[in-house]
Specification:
It contains four helices and seven strands. It comes from Hymenobacter segetis.
């Protein structure tokens, strides 16, 4: 059993068709604490979606569901959270943010949160 990892889902949505919706539910079902952050108010996995930039501590993982074209506005927020790692889900790959994170000692990984959870590698 993997140890619980406090995970910030950036790009969280209350739309069941979105991968971020599925990820929030799957993370919670696997026992991880979920902090959903998105651009629209709503609920996912029984949690309110933050539309601001909550000042969280002890974030293990930021999992991205925001395309690279929209990520620069989030750079400072993501990096200031000082997560242990940032997961770039398919379609969110961004060499610039990866480099900035690595310069701060933050691990980066291009991988799908859903796949990692389903194979026990999260």
């Amino acid at each position: 059993m993997e140890s619980p990892k406090k995970t910030l889902v950036l790009g969280a949505s209350d739309n069941p068709a979105r991968y971020s919706y599925r990820a929030a539910h799957m993370l919670k079902n696997h026992g991880h604490e979920v902090v959903p952050v998105g651009i629209r108010k709503g609920q996912v996995a029984g949690l309110d979606i933050h539309t601001d930039r909550p000042q969280e501590t002890d974030i293990d993982t930021v999992t991205l569901y925001v395309g690279p074209q929209n990520q620069p506005a989030w750079y400072d927020y993501i990096l200031d959270l000082q997560p242990k790692r940032i997961l770039f889900n398919p379609g969110t790959e961004n060499p610039e943010l990866e480099r900035l994170a690595q310069q701060r000692g933050i691990q980066t990984e291009e991988a799908c949160t859903l796949v990692l959870l389903s194979i026990g590698q999260y």
